[in-house]
Amino acid sequence: MLFRSLAQEAQLKMLRYQLNPHFLFNTLNAISTLIIDNRNSVANSAVSGLSEFLRYTLDQDPMKKVTVAQEMEALNLYLNIEKMRFGARLTIEHAIDDQASDVLMPSLLLQPLIENAVKYAISPREAGGTIRISGCVTAGLLHLTVADDGPGLIDPTRLTNGRGVGIRNTRERLQVLYGEKGQVEVSGANPGLRVALVFPAERVLRGLPPV
């Protein structure tokens, strides 16, 4: 049992950190673009935001779960950087039910999915687009969804473009933690793409920190 537990912990940490270099490259590239465009004050704010987000990712134990509310706060650190880059081209909508806010979830689970939406649905389009993050609890299960109004995928089941890495990473994290009870579903949003996550809803016990 000890060996299995250690192996599971090692796999979770590997999956959690797999995409960090990719995120860092994209963000630094965005900051570089701001500097080239002589938007130096915005670039400086973006660097500060990146520093705060990286501090969070480094301090956060991959084995520790956070509440949905805490996950949204962390995501906003990332999204604020992207908003500095895209301005009015990027619209973010939140639809998190109150009953879902204190449910526990793996930290930074949604970040690669939102990064995908920014890269493939917002960045290539002159008019930009909208990313919608929603969450609710039904029948003891937490439902989280990241949807965009971009071009989507011709065949969502194949995931032939770069989105596949982030979605595969998310699916593997859920399977390690929840087994068959952790599900990821990818579908067309007409327009756009919708990635839905479902896993058991665990709540913080009063008086105790997140586990």
Written account of the structure:
This protein is α+β, with helices and mostly antiparallel strands and 211 residues long. It has helices spanning 2-17, 20-36, 40-59, 68-86, 111-122, 163-178; strands at 65-67, 90-96, 103-106, 129-138, 141-148, 183-188, 193-200, 202-203. Helix content is 47%, strand content 23%. A hairpin with a 4-residue loop joins strand 6 (183-188) and strand 7.
Could you name the key traits of this structure?
single chain; alpha+beta; 5-stranded mixed sheet; 3-stranded antiparallel sheet; 6 helices
Q: Major β-sheet, in short?
A: 5 strands, mixed
Shape assignment: globular
Q: Unreliable stretches, pLDDT < 50, 5 or more residues?
A: none
The whole-angstrom Rg is: 17 Å
Please work out how many helical segments DSSP would assign: 6
Order of helices and strands: HHHEHEEHEEHEEE
Structural class: alpha+beta
What fraction of the residues are assigned to beta strands by DSSP?
A: 15-25%
Oligomer: single chain
| Helix-residue proportion | 40-55%
Number of strands: 8
* Span between termini: 20 Å
The strand order across the widest sheet is 2-4-5-7-6
The mean pLDDT is: 84
List the helices and strands and how they pair.
Blueprint: H1 2-17, H2 20-36, H3 40-59, E1 65-67, H4 68-86, E2 90-96, E3 103-106, H5 111-122, E4 129-138, E5 141-148, H6 163-178, E6 183-188, E7 193-200, E8 202-203
Parallel strand pairs: 2-4
Antiparallel strand pairs: 1-3, 3-8, 4-5, 5-7, 6-7
Helix pairs in contact: 1-6, 2-3, 3-4, 5-6
Short description:
The protein is an alpha+beta fold and 211 residues long. The chain has helices at residues 2-17, 20-36, 40-59, 68-86, 111-122, 163-178, and strands at residues 65-67, 90-96, 103-106, 129-138, 141-148, 183-188, 193-200, 202-203.
